[in-house]
Amino acid sequence: MDLKLFDSIHEAKKALENNKPRQVRADGKEICIVRKGEEIFAFQDACAHMGENLHKGNTNPFNEIVCPLHAYRFHMKTGEECEGRCSPLKIYPIIENEEGVFIRI
Question: Is the dihedral of CA 16, 18, 23, 26 positive or negative?
Fold first, then answer.
């Protein structure tokens, strides 16, 4: 199922501050979305280690989201924890087309 987040990529870029994680709710799920330049990433908002909200964390130059609780780092494209200490995050594909920006649930 694809759920519309924004009416256009232009709207998405205005709404999503570069490198600033943000929480959205889609189909009852809490999801963290991050815009890094031209790319938008979406993944579960709960850290796979202890469940802390990842939208409260930061990104780094390696396309990783850093958990604010214990600094676990997850690659935003694959969901993998960078040192293999816990299970990967669930990733949600982002679809951009002429109708808008969608998240696939």
Answer: positive
